[in-house]
């Protein structure tokens, strides 16, 4: 019998055919599909766990802000007894207090001080840092890389190191403006120094090394041909900066503004050092004063529900701000790793 005939011959009784060693393509696709679903499920479970981990403190704050005194720290997911701790008629202690009804506590004015100081400081830092970053990205001048390296080296200097020298500088400036008040033109120039709100936002007019680095990376990603074409059309450098660089770098500008407004909004150390009059207090400093006043150690009745209500008012604007500008925030963060 030929070889072909042997291949076609029927199998002898009790024997089996050759076992295929290759898994069918359909089965392989099913296994890959199952593996992808398992991976996605595990990833979803991890994300859910992390979301709960990060959201629980905020939920606890919201619940504590609506709990009566004595139930603030019961750790219940929702208040057992709801209480409005924000507004109402003032009743002297030991009655529970309400945030906006406390005598001598201008909470609304403190919030306004935080708003205008944060917005002004963030706007100044964003604009000045953008100007310096554009200069480092576009212009070619001697020692450019060296100067940029020195600028980045200042990021390694903690703020605590310069805190006392900066305070002494503002103290001397304040004394100078008080002693030479008449020289500045019949009192036109105000008193600048410690005890005023100027130290809270004036330093922002000098930019920030971190924000300069962030925006420079974005400006380096803009094709230089855009600027060369604008120069051929007769645009000035500032016109190129305003009409080309700023619109294309909007994500970096927004993330700079968000970072700085968040830093100013929650800043407690700087107002605590420089401010003396309650009319100039910011919201974080005001909440600190209320905490010292109403806790048990400070002689109060433990009105922590007032502190929680004020803290909630502090946190909500930043939550809304990050939610509105989150896409720009993510794009701006991604640019930090861009190689210039």
Quick rundown:
With 340 residues, this protein is mostly helical.
Approximately what portion of the residues adopt beta-strand conformation? under 5%
* CATH architecture assignment of the domain at 99-335: Orthogonal Bundle
| Name of the top-level CATH class of the domain at 99-335 | Mainly Alpha
Radius of gyration: 32 Å
Q: Characterize the biggest β-sheet.
A: none
- Number of helical stretches of at least 4 residues: 14
- Tell me the CATH topology of the domain at 99-335: MetI-like fold
CATH superfamily of the domain at 99-335: MetI-like
The 3D shape can be described as flat
Mean pLDDT: 83
> What distance lies between the first and last C-alpha atoms, to the nearest angstrom?
77 Å
Could you explain the architecture of this structure?
The protein has a domain at 99-335: MetI-like (MetI-like fold, Orthogonal Bundle), CATH 1.10.3720.10. 62% of the residues lie in helices and 0% in strands. The chain is built from 14 helices and no strands. The longest helix is centred in the first third of the chain and has 41 residues, at 25-65. It is flat. 24% of the residues are buried. The model has no long low-confidence stretch (mean pLDDT 83).
């Amino acid at each position: 019998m030929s070889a072909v005939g042997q291949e076609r011959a029927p199998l002898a009784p009790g024997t089996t055919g050759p076992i295929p060693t290759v898994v069918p393509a359909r089965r392989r696709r099913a296994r890959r599909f199952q593996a992808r679903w398992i991976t996605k499920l595990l990833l979803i479970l991890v994300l859910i766990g992390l979301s709960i981990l990060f959201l629980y403190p905020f939920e606890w704050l919201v619940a504590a802000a609506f709990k009566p005194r004595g139930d603030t720290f019961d750790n219940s997911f929702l208040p057992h007894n709801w209480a409005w701790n924000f507004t109402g008629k003032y009743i002297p202690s030991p009655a529970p207090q309400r945030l906006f009804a406390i005598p001598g506590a201008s909470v609304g004015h403190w919030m306004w001080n935080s708003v205008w100081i944060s917005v002004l400081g963030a706007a100044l830092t964003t604009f000045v840092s953008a100007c310096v970053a554009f200069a480092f990205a576009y212009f070619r001048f001697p020692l450019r890389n060296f100067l940029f390296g020195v600028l980045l080296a200042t990021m390694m200097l903690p703020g605590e190191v310069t805190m006392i020298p900066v305070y002494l500088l503002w103290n001397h400036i304040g004394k100078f403006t008080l002693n030479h008040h008449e020289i500045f033109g019949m009192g036109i120039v105000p008193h600048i120094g410690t005890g005023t709100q100027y130290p809270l936002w004036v330093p922002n007019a000098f930019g920030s090394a971190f924000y300069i680095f962030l925006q420079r990376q974005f400006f380096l990603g803009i094709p230089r041909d855009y600027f060369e074409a604008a120069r051929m059309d007769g645009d000035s450098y500032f016109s190129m900066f305003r009409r080309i660089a700023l619109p294309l770098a909007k994500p970096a500008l927004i993330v700079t503004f968000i970072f700085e407004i968040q830093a100013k909004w929650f800043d407690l150390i700087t107002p605590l050092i420089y401010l003396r009059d309650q009319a100039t207090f910011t919201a974080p400093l005001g909440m600190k004063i209320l905490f010292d006043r109403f806790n048990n150690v400070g002689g109060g009745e433990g009105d922590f529900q007032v502190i929680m209500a004020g803290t909630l008012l502090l946190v909500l604007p930043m939550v809304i701000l990050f939610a509105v500008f989150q896409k720009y925030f993510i794009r701006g963060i991604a640019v930090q790793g861009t190689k210039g």
